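Lecture notes, structural biology module. Today: joint structure prediction for complexes of three components.
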Amino acid sequence: MRSLLMLMAVSLLAAAPARAGELTLYTSQPNKIAAETVAAFEKADPGVHVSVFRSGTTQVMNKLGAEFMAGRPKADVLLIADAMSMQALKQQGRLLPDPGQDVTGFAPGTYDPGRTYFGTKLITTGIVYNKAAPFVPHSWKDLLRAKARGQVVLPSPLYSGAAMITMGAFTENPAIGADYFKKLAAERAISVAGNGGVLNQVQSGSRAFGIVVDFMALNAKAKGAPVGFVFPREGVTAVTEPVAILKTTRNAKDARAFVAFLLSPAGQRLAARQGFIPARQGIAPPPGFPSAGPIHLMTMDIGRILKDSTRLKQQFSDLFGG
Amino acid sequence: MTDGLLIEGVAKGFGGSTVLADVSLAVAPGEAVALLGPSGSGKSTLLRLVAGFERTDRGRISFDGTVLDEAALFVAPERRRFGFVFQNFALWPHLDAARNVRYPLDRAGVRRAEASGRAESALRLVGLAGFGGRDVALLSGGQRQRVALARAMVAEPRLVLLDEPLANLDPHLKGTMLAEIAALRARAGAAMLYVTHDQGEAMAIAGRIAVIEGGRLRQVADPRTLYREPADAFVAGFVGRGALLPAMVVDQAHAQIGGQVLAARMAPGTPAGPARALIRPEGVRAAASGLAARVLGARYRGGGWELRLALGGGEVLMDVADGEPPDGELRVTLDAPWIIRD
Amino acid sequence: MRRAVWLPLGCGALLALAAFPPLIRLAAVTLSPASLAVLASPIARAALLHSVAMGIVSTVLAGVLGTVFAVLLTLTDLPARRTVAFLFLLLLIVPPQITAQAWIVLLGPSSPLLAPLGLAPRPGSEPLYGPGGVAFLLAVEQAPIVYLALRASLAAIPADLIEAAQAAGAGRARQIGLALELARPGLLGGLSLSFVAAIGNFGTPALLAIPGRYPMLTTLIYQRLTGFGLGSIGEAAALALLLALLALAGASGEALMARRRATAPGRVARLALGRWRRPAAAMVGMTLAGLLAAPLAALLLTALLPTLGVQPDAATLGLGNFRSILAAGATRRALLDSLVLALGAGVVLAALLVAVCHAARRARAARALLAALEVPYVVPGLVLAIGCILVFLRPIAGITLYNSLGIILVAYLARFAALARRPLGAVMATLDPALEEAAAAAGAAPLPRFATVILPLALPAAVSAATLVFLAAFNELTVSALLWSAGHETLGVAVFNLEQAGEATRAAALSVVAMVATVALMLGAGVALRGRRLLPWQA
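The predicted structure, tokenised, for the full assembly:
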């Protein structure tokens, strides 16, 4: 009993880190990936120690939002799935511009022209299918076929940034159409919270088809799961997993170094090794990704999607319940 | 300054209803007093006020000249150092018999070895030598009450309070327990306030009995006086068997009952006029001449009969010896009955 | 009689300080006429209706299941009672999302049981998605809660009361009826807790109600918060207010129906089942197998596979997932942290609540506090966590709780007080006041009286309370999801993070490790407290 109390006391008091050489990163990267990224950076820049808070994008944004409300955000650097949340933070004036950051090799759409956030990789959203599925889909429209009725599972834009971007891009894309999600709902597709849930359903065979981010499906396939992944012919949407520095950082110097590392060839090769398509051109994509030509990315306007997001989410939750 | 317990003008109510109204009573050191009354009379409340479990609304309770409870002044129960025995025993189930008994000594800071010794001898006194290690939940009712008694007495309190201690025991156990309680108390020399609704218990244990009803003391007296000279109709009816007949007081020694003027006892200063006469069964005797009575019924009481008689405009009881009970009309005389004013 | 005033006052104040400032601060910052307008929207009305319906239906089901087990295990001579009680409690340690996941697979289109028989439902028409599945799984989750709350009261019934009924010619059914009537505070406590737990539950509705397009209050709040950002936190807070009112209604219903009666503990009643002994044992065994073995088997199988969907055979099954999660420092830390948090919250809450529940016999303020403690249990963990951030981000009296285990512990004290109070409140309500008066007459001042009489008598209930809190806190997710920080992870968060990353098999492995640790701890406690009848499965 006494030792338990001691243990608790020690744990309770071990707080409040010093600032010099200390960085706090809030990220939505999976734990293992985040740990590897931080380890690689700390190896490249030995004077700095990075503490990580990891959760889903929406949770990270909620935590940060509450910290803003209380007037003392703890994070220095933010690395989250989609540019939309970054755009929102930028509009609130929460981000520190970094005009000196080197963006050679990055396509203009991948970073903020105001140089507040920078895409680090391309995470595309495509279709995962179970090997037992009645057919192999090639087009987004295949998911509306009668044979796919009740067999489709998709992530909710209320929980997943990538799903939000996908919904926004589809709505703007005449080849797919604004009523695509309405039709999916009518064909009894179901929605689960995040991409992980989608993958579970398809892997376990509960559903034949899922809309999901590329690396999760390809990782599962590499481990022997009975699934395949396709980049549909109308094109795919992508989130760029941007990184940004908060204006309230107390360690801007090391924060800039962290951003620079992620964008550097070394950082980009690490992303490729982790199974992501690097944002920087000229770095080889990971094995398993289509080598034949560049992936066809749908065009999209982040600012507009952000503006429409509340309406789109409302529409989605009316259609799918959550 | 009076030694012993002094209750003066105490009143207590719960949620608007009065439970005790202006009760005064003294218990001298070493004296045994019973509080006798029907259920709901307020007797347990009075005992709980003395113990300090409740606070008075009005009045004063003091012991050996020290005020325990008066207005803002209040001595907590744990500082009064009285023994208390509960109707349902209230033994602590997580402690064995010996630890239950020595609990008051532990609280008083008595050293371990001494406390164990005293607890053991207290258990021996109540006939439970060697039961110290027993789980109290596994003891019989009588054994549990003995443990409770030992616990109340072990710290040698100057006053022991007992709240219907025998109400949960078999009748045949009651007699033995009564004798044991009396002997224990006498040995310890403690004063005692004993709450009961059973007049037999009260008479057996107490030198004086305080009869309480409706939150008021009706009479405080020794058992013989209480039986022979009850203060009012309630006490007359509650204590002992008997019946009240309409009577007309003639003078300080006579009253007219059933149309005849008979010798009667009464409190000094009883005015002439209508009253009631208390007729005890043992005071009714068959005679060749006397009042006319008719037998209404007979009940065998072991060793004799209790007759129910119609007499002088009412009903009385009469004890007759074993044999065939009389039937029909008979004549009776009355030993000088006790007159109660209306 | 004079009571120990400072002890319950101090304990109550500590509880109130942990529980209310975050919620009050949040309400003050966010509630406005505009945000309250959400309450009038059709979706809010539907969600309210659904939440109440699920609360009532699941509570009735959980009440039946929990009562049957409590009666069989506490009052009868059912064979292997201790083992059954232990297994029944394991229902509490299987994380609800795992149970839900297992049932989704078991009753789903690719069901390993139903598919070979051709009985599997067609995709899109699974029975579990929607109100039926939600009510069923909530009931499974809540049955042990009813069981635990009822058990303490049943065990306190003196045998002679049951024997009196026997003597009066009552059959077994009537004797059980009498026992339940006598154990009413416990039963009511369990039912009201079950109702409150149901309307405050997020995990199960998230898995079953969202795909079933059946909005409930908790999913709606979560949806507002996650989907529409902190801009809609006011609406979330307004909806949470609705939940709080529902919980208070549930708790006051309990208070209205509860009758206090004193029973002196004595011999425990024990009914002979006679010729029903075997059928009853068979029924208990089958229920446990269905509720426990099925999801556990599914979980274990998942944990042994490299990834979901792989055919299990000699080549694919292995311990790789276990090796990788145990090798990670963060998961080991998460296990230890959750252990410390769950034990700490359980012990602290049981200790504080013994004093407060004891005071509640007489003090209206203590009763009001206990009722108010329902609120932090029923508001979504996310809402409570945001409130905690608002209050504890800045140092208070020179101590910064933020980014330490301390803030999670404080949040857990707020979150689980309602859970801990049930067994304690029920036992305190039936404790004979004469036991304490006897101690006063024996010269014990209020504090020693509390220490030597009340505390030991409340100990079994306190251990039940601490166990309930421990089991709930060990897998807790929604509160710690926002409050954890680097170096201070919790188990629930670690599992959640793995699941989010699509690592379902590793998440399963970590859950298995956590459950093994819990079972080992429970067995260890059983050995340490052998013969003391303190633990809920030692009846």
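Point to remember: The mean pLDDT of chain A is 86.
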